[in-house]
## 1
Amino acid sequence: MAAATAAGGKAKQAQRAKAVSAEGLTAIFSPASVAVVGASNRPDSVGRAVFKNILASDYSGIIYPVNPKAKSICGVRAYPTMGNIPDQVDLAVLIVPAAQTPAVAREAAAKGVKALIVISAGFRETGPAGAAIEQELVAVCLEHGMRLVGPNCLGIINTDPLTGLNASFARQKAKPGNIAFISQSGALCTAVLDFAAKKNIGFSKFISVGNKADIGELALIRYLHDDPQTKVIMLYVEELRHGAEFIEVVREITGGENPTPILAIKAGRTAEGAAAVSSHTGSLAGSEAVYNALFEQSGVFRAQSIEELFDYAVAFANQPLPRSNRMAIITNAGGPGIIATDVTIHSGLKLAALGEATTEVLRSHLPASANIHNPVDVIGDARSDRYQAALEAVLHDENVDGVIFILTPQSMTEIEETAAIIPELARKSGKPVVASFMGLMDVSKGIEVLEQHRIPHYHFPEAAARAMSALYQYSCWLHRQHLEEIALPVDRTAAAKVIRRALKNGSQYLGEVEGNEILAAYGFSVLPSRLAVSADEAAAAVAEFGPCAMKIVSPQIVHKSDVGGVRVGVATPAEAQRAYAEIIAAARRHLPEAEVHGVFVQRMAARGVEVILGIKRYPAFGPLLMFGLGGIFVEIFKDVSFRLAPIRHNGARHMVRSIKAYPMLDGARGAAVADQEELERCLLRLSRLATDHPEIAELDINPLMVHEQGKGCSVADCRILLRPSDGPAE
Amino acid sequence: MAAATAAGGKAKQAQRAKAVSAEGLTAIFSPASVAVVGASNRPDSVGRAVFKNILASDYSGIIYPVNPKAKSICGVRAYPTMGNIPDQVDLAVLIVPAAQTPAVAREAAAKGVKALIVISAGFRETGPAGAAIEQELVAVCLEHGMRLVGPNCLGIINTDPLTGLNASFARQKAKPGNIAFISQSGALCTAVLDFAAKKNIGFSKFISVGNKADIGELALIRYLHDDPQTKVIMLYVEELRHGAEFIEVVREITGGENPTPILAIKAGRTAEGAAAVSSHTGSLAGSEAVYNALFEQSGVFRAQSIEELFDYAVAFANQPLPRSNRMAIITNAGGPGIIATDVTIHSGLKLAALGEATTEVLRSHLPASANIHNPVDVIGDARSDRYQAALEAVLHDENVDGVIFILTPQSMTEIEETAAIIPELARKSGKPVVASFMGLMDVSKGIEVLEQHRIPHYHFPEAAARAMSALYQYSCWLHRQHLEEIALPVDRTAAAKVIRRALKNGSQYLGEVEGNEILAAYGFSVLPSRLAVSADEAAAAVAEFGPCAMKIVSPQIVHKSDVGGVRVGVATPAEAQRAYAEIIAAARRHLPEAEVHGVFVQRMAARGVEVILGIKRYPAFGPLLMFGLGGIFVEIFKDVSFRLAPIRHNGARHMVRSIKAYPMLDGARGAAVADQEELERCLLRLSRLATDHPEIAELDINPLMVHEQGKGCSVADCRILLRPSDGPAE
């Protein structure tokens, strides 16, 4: 219930943020007037480049250059300060030294400016002095309700003909289109604009976010989701700062009503710090795991390279999604058809089994040597009519969800005419069609036709098949099933008490004793256990519980087995007495200075599959949950799944089923099917625990024994690392 | 020893083949005169396209068009038949209907022609009738010692200025260069030539092999290896036909003296037939495993897409190999530097730790805000001098094995000048340098400079880093260590006797009884065992061996556990008697008609790691060997390694160490280190067994128990599938 309330509170907060955001962002993308502070006549200066770009962009509003020394900039009357501008100013673009920006921002506020784009560098990226200026700048903006893009950015471009604003110093213009691009790297923006121009790819909006002092990806994604010009959003991200909110907002945008697909490149994958970690979860988690979970949970498709990003974006921007994964391939050459088949199947798509009616139609239109089964080979001497018959036939087939259309230029090939038959047939069918007109020069006339009619095309069939697969994966995200949520009663107060007590005592590591208390409060099934402080007490416990495991309890002893501090399968009271003495003696021998609290005696767990459940908390993202099979599976195969908390029932199921070793929980090799429902519940409890108690920095339940179906799961061992809470829950 | 002799014989055979091959291939690539049979004046005809291509290619020899009806072709005097040509003819290019080709080939032979290129289609690819014509054509060529390219191909191109022959009907010309391309798909040739022309990539030779009736990849690779114009060979392969020979020849070419790197795309990966398989090895192996093993063992680098193939080929053709994997990255922008760092590390390279002298030099040349550590960031306002200082410094550093050079066009960037500093510095250093001048249009002047001086360049840094990784991987192949070979005495005759006997009796599946005999003959340690035909015999065996496993022996019962036909841990003679009776009774109950030979009683294996060793034989490739950990590792994780037999000591070690679960054999989680040396020997024995006995179609040793170091391995179970030999060993 607590989580539901928290989520509710956040939703409201998000809505408020959205309202403010939208207004400020309108001033950025569609201002009625722009002041360019630092506009300059100096050749090669950024101030001149920005001003000239705005002038050249068919901007529908009014531009005011601001420069204390110049009468005019590029022939436009200049003003010494913003205060001198006779009219209202919506947006100010700043190209002045960093140190002057707070003062200029104040001036802007006084003028009633709604938003700033600060292009100047010299802020946080240069060190503490710059960071202080950035902080001051943000404070001014906050105080006066101004939104801020940058600082240290290339600027923004809006190709909407109603506005037409290029407020950037990019050398290359952006063609209008329906792809939005948000980049954390200014240098990449330049290269991307250049690449896109040559590839004839257009943009709706283009934003260099720079240091993201105010406006970051999330605000922009919200805005672009509502932007009628934007059909797909591309992100280049080095770091995100608000993980939990990102998931909550973006999953609705990518997967809710009027969904907007989002594609991302995340760089900095290997920049992992070598921070010491104390748990399995800690050592397996890392920023890669966090971002993969983040993107997966928010429905963002992660591309592996910039070229892939474009390949996919063009498909998303121009084609409908396939309803399922049964693809038809049409080709006029065997080799490329084989290549496309390979990649199609490799990327999780299927070759459609064509209906009998289809093959009959194909047989009637194609020569005897053609392949009328999928991949359909219309043969090297095919002219456009044969391609047309084949495309029409497969698109009519209800067993076909999309078409990969391949053309290799051969002597009889009618390149342009063949290109021309695709768009209308594709449009009428409502199914996605992607093309590979192979080569570059020979087929250029055909490619012009494809581009004009928005049929995505690729040099080679591999990229075409991969793009189709991306469309299909997004279709799966949109149509995913939602499991009924499960109500799990928890005793948050009881757990909080244990944590508070431990922190008060200065304990950072909690072992089984307190760990079990906390887990039990969250509904985990813990095994009967007792802390024995004498051999007799240990014997009594074994008499009561049956066969037990016994472990030393000492804050100084973390690796208990290493010091001979563990016994398992202690079956009788007599054995327990002996074991107690030996464990205490071993501990004293290995670590004479260790403070020994006693020996933990716990009933041996019933048989089951050993799994590991874990939590690791990340500052900007909150708790990352981990699941995997224990032992070698986690240590050698690293076969684990991650999700950021909170998760829902869907997420818990996904975590369980997405490890490779999942069949071992599902009756592989004649074993009993494990209690997966209870395991899913345990993951939901873990998620609740993680979100309820921000003091839990790391947690390992290792192993959790998953018994056979209907018999539940038991915690066999656990370890928790606490850190004093120093802020709100996330 | 047998294998050594076989290998020796093959080496000689290969040498002979090489001599013939070279002569015939010279006539194909550098003929003194060419007859074009079927040359035509008809517009759009292939006969005209080929003839015009030769005419236009600055061919240094003499061309004779042959056409019974025309006086001249494109102004060149024509001859009605080859017999009418007054001079010697080296090469005949045939563009006549398939059915006429055998007759024309005979005419060519009579004229003393040394080689044919048959461009015409209508052969094997069209069905049995065409196949018969193809066979006849090949027979004529064989009889008269003529070599043959095709049929059903695009032709060949030789850009060597001494010859200058474009005997193809490609629309696009090939630029001279030092990359050779061999393609099994004609359609792909066209697209590749087109793509390369636009990307300014040149070729030494370009060969469309068509149906490969005579000349295939292997002969061409041999020829190109000796071709001074060729520095790297690219293959597009759909199927290869001589696996064992391919490995033997190509490993020398890619890894011997004056090595030639070979890059391949293999298509048809998912075209796997659903043939029934009877063993684990059979179900896990497949054409993908075969080709991966084939390429790996022969040092051929497999690319994943055509664009990757080109990306790598350009690097191999123009840059030296890095001595190790320590890379420096130079960039003028953070984002692209991060991307390059990611891919660098992800592809098995390292970021070099720059020496102190280097960072000092960098500090002296670069502004304070620059990053003087790797990745070196010269900052956005860098002109060419700063780039030059940085490149010089890192190339001088002995900790740097190669450089990835990134430029993003910014306002101060001197694109052309910066490009110009790279070639000389790179050349002097002897280290590879690859560049990414990001974008397309803005940087085109710089790219011209790079291309002119043979510095490989890529639109985005990902591809640059991947190309560098390919260079490094090839460098590893060239410098790999060779383990001393191990002499393993085997009793080939004893094993052959068991196999012959079984085949004579009509047995196809061999179980433990004969399996153990065969394995023992090859030096495998098999457990003491006996076939008991009575309860008393079973009891006696247990009395003698100690605790045993007991299994039903019946040719009709393959899945013994399923019918209650297996007992393990039978400890006493009394237990053995009981178990015998129960096993027999269970078998009779489940399969009353089964012929029961008795119960196999075998000593329980000592503890160890369970691994699986397997053989599956492929027609054109010989035996594929498999290795992996048993049980779930093979069944769920499919964590296995493959090699084609024969393997050497290196190969055996590689098989053992390349599975993911290898740490489990190497003392992971505190376990004993397993006897890996004996395991390697077992794999060598397996290889010998597979090459010595072509009747073994499939074999599983599952499990082989690998005991701890020094304690050997024992065969705990095995199964062999025989097929009557119908040809030579491979």
## 2
Amino acid sequence: MTKQKRTVFYLSDRTGITAETLGHSLLTQFDGIEWKKINVPFLDNMAKARTLVERINHAAECDGYRPLVFSTLLKADILEVIRQANCRVYDFFETFISSIEQELQQPSARMAGRSHGLQQPLSYFKRIAAINYALGHDDGVNPKNFTDADIILVGVSRAGKTPTCLYLALQYGIAAANYPLTQEDMLANQLPKVLEPVRNKLFGLTLSAAQLHFIREERRPHSQYASLAQCQREIQWQESLFQLFHIPYLDTTHISIEEISAIILDRSGLKRQLYG
Amino acid sequence: MTKQKRTVFYLSDRTGITAETLGHSLLTQFDGIEWKKINVPFLDNMAKARTLVERINHAAECDGYRPLVFSTLLKADILEVIRQANCRVYDFFETFISSIEQELQQPSARMAGRSHGLQQPLSYFKRIAAINYALGHDDGVNPKNFTDADIILVGVSRAGKTPTCLYLALQYGIAAANYPLTQEDMLANQLPKVLEPVRNKLFGLTLSAAQLHFIREERRPHSQYASLAQCQREIQWQESLFQLFHIPYLDTTHISIEEISAIILDRSGLKRQLYG
């Protein structure tokens, strides 16, 4: 049996980030469908809307099914044009806004670009400072400044420390450093000395030896470094180290950078520095 | 007149990213309200739900208004408990899922953790490769490899190149390098030589001289580097350079990293390498 093919359009006055995030989270609940996702940001005039109608109709013909359209458009007149196309529209904005207006007893501004627009200067600086901190304290660099970190991720090579630090900085404004656990630490069987003064900021990342092996093979195929036996040794050792020193840690085998970051925030009790 | 204070809860089985995105994009449309936002991720059992009911009721008492609750919970029984609290619930999932089920003529999986769960291995590697590329080609480092870049951001110091490159990598899997335009380039009044072979990949970032001055003052207060006159010279020069060499460019004064990135993607015609 061939898979049902469906085209999905994400429509927005601005970046389309909200439309995509919301649409994506709904569509992941449906298996066995082949999605073709098209982001249509900055849909801000009638001419663009009319061209899009043709595109939607064309997709409907090709697929044999009408496309799904997820919209965060604030301008009702543009969405009205889109509704003429052969599609099913899910309107995130209108669906909720009236009842929120009623609850708050005030009208909404209906102005585009607010959701991912420029933050307040303070947030901007916090965000940039956190990014700079992550970049300047990646992979064990400048451990002297670790006392300034909000959190310090530790783990063996390829455990996901760097992307998580960057995500924590960009998304939450958290100053995150990271420090690699190496072969030498393993032989000495102790926590690296530089980490001792900041033990209460440590958070371990671990994963299955098989997954680590898979990731390392991509980097250095058929190396000792990537071998399953080596990965097993390192993972086993680091997990007992985490337990011995009461370092909280997380198994990241089945989760994404977004989830790792949200879980770290939740467990460490760190306060996000950016909102929205 | 004092501002209306309102507490907002974002409820989720998992990270809460979707619930926050939805709530935030709606709430930005209402001015003059002081929001207190509380993210409640991993709300996955009845005991947590009952504790939360008390917390919501307490907030309602303190605020003098009932809290708004944005939920992406998949488990109806947990949300049922929350509905007993003194609050207004906006249920993202149930609001849309039935009509999508009807449209697709199949039931949804209703399984948590899919939206920001682990991507396919291919996407995972693309994402990590893009992050590594951005880290290895920041601030003019390794220009020999610029031919491998999907895009190369250029601009004067503090124009926002680094955070944008990181966001493009993390969010879209785009391999983005960046190269700073310096005082020396300005004196020579030409495009840096190393950029000539990759002219078709260049994208300029500019901003108002006043904003650049503001940002640089934060970094090096009262310096020549941060002076308004210096910022004016550099901005004027780089914009004429962009025009002379037909380098597309963007004024980032009033927009966020998310918007800059989405606009770059839209204008350059680059295809995102990650979806969702």
